[in-house]
Amino acid sequence: MNIHLKGLEGAPHIVQVLPTNTVGELRGLAQRQLAPLQPLSCVRLIWKSKPLENDAQTLQEAGFTENIVVHVVVGYAGFAYRNTVPPPPPPLFSTSAAPAAAPASSFAPATQAFTFTIGPPVYPGA
């Protein structure tokens, strides 16, 4: 059966697959067609507004039919789509009763004293 792989550039690429092929094999085809320089972990397939995450599932089990359109989203190297949840941000305020210790300062106190004299202004040449 023919499947249309559509990337961000808009032009669909038609690939011929069997109903017994897996989602993982289709993802490999999509990577070779649309993103040959990116690793396979950066390629994501979306069908019916849902990501196809089970690589072991056959296309027939997923409900694929002839001439469907599968959208291909390619991330950047080093970014994994699967099972990634960003870590929570650090708390803005401490909830403990004890105050946090002040950070050690790298500022050294001055060793010379400066003296300023306040008086009438002195104009040069006066």
Summarize the structure in words.
- It is a single chain.
- By secondary structure, the protein is α+β, with helices and mostly antiparallel strands.
- It contains two helices and five strands, in the order ββαββαβ.
- The longest helix is centred in the first third of the chain and has 12 residues, at 23-34.
- The model has no long low-confidence stretch (mean pLDDT 77).
What labels describe this entry?
126 residues; alpha+beta; 13% helix; elongated
Give a short synopsis of this structure.
The protein is an alpha+beta fold and 126 residues long. The protein has helices at 23-34, 59-62, and strands spanning 2-6, 12-16, 43-47, 50-51, 68-74.
Structural class: alpha+beta
Number of strands: 5
Distance between the termini: 100 Å
Taking strands numbered 1, 2, ... along the chain, how are they ordered across the largest sheet? 2-1-5-3-4
Helix and strand sequence? EEHEEHE
Q: How much beta, percentage-wise? A: 15-25%
SS summary, helix count: 2
Main beta sheet strand tally, sense and closure: 5 strands, mixed
Mean pLDDT: 77
Helical fraction: 10-25%
Model regions low in confidence, pLDDT < 50 over at least 5 residues? none
| Multimer state | single chain
What gross morphology would you assign? elongated
Determine Rg (CA atoms, Å): 32 Å
